[in-house]
Amino acid sequence: MSSLELEKLNEALDKQRVRIAKLKKFKRYENIEMYDNFLNYVEQNPTRSYYPINKILTASKSNSIDNVISIVEFFSAFLDIQYFYFNSDDGENILISRDSYIEAMELGEAPVDMMTGNHIEYYDHKNISFYCTLNTTEYGCDRND
After folding, report:
1. Distance between CA 45 and CA 42 in Å, rounded?
2. Are residues 41 and 13 in the same domain?
3. Do 84 and 129 touch, CB atoms closer than 8 A?
4. What is the pTM of this model?
């Protein structure tokens, strides 16, 4: 990681910590420790940019998928999310949209392959997931700033 990339990462982390401080100011303490844990992990592992669900759990010191969702939502300007279906036939990830992911999780409908536009054949709900990457374009800037 170059010194410029590290500087950008530290600036992004600082912006996210300001957001957490605002929550503390308004006494909204729910999940703050988890958010702090996640940012500390990112800071201590500056070369990591890929965050699957299990790594977000580890980084936040959490054990709940609901907490992962909370982290992803809170850091939505800092994390890019990719939804996918793992095709066990060929070992490839098939990209799916957020809407398709939600429909699959909530309604049990087969997700739609973003490349082909077709529903995934032989859908197995155990093979649907998501991962996050650090946002290197906006790099942690709050989209509402």
Report:
1. 5
2. yes
3. yes
4. 0.81
Quick one: 66 and 98 in the same domain? no
- The domain of 38 spans 3-75
| Residue 30 included in any domain | yes
Supply the angle between the helices 32-44 and 65-74 in degrees, to the nearest 10.
Answer: 70
Burial of 103-132, coded b for 16+ CB within 10 Å and e otherwise, reads bbeeeeebbbbeeeeeebeeeeeebbbbbb
Q: What is the pLDDT of residues 31-50, one digit of tens each?
A: 899 999 999 999 999 999 99
Question: How far apart (Å, rounded) are the C-alpha atoms in residues 140 and 99?
Answer: 24
How many independent structural domains does the chain possess?
2
pLDDT at 84 over 50: yes
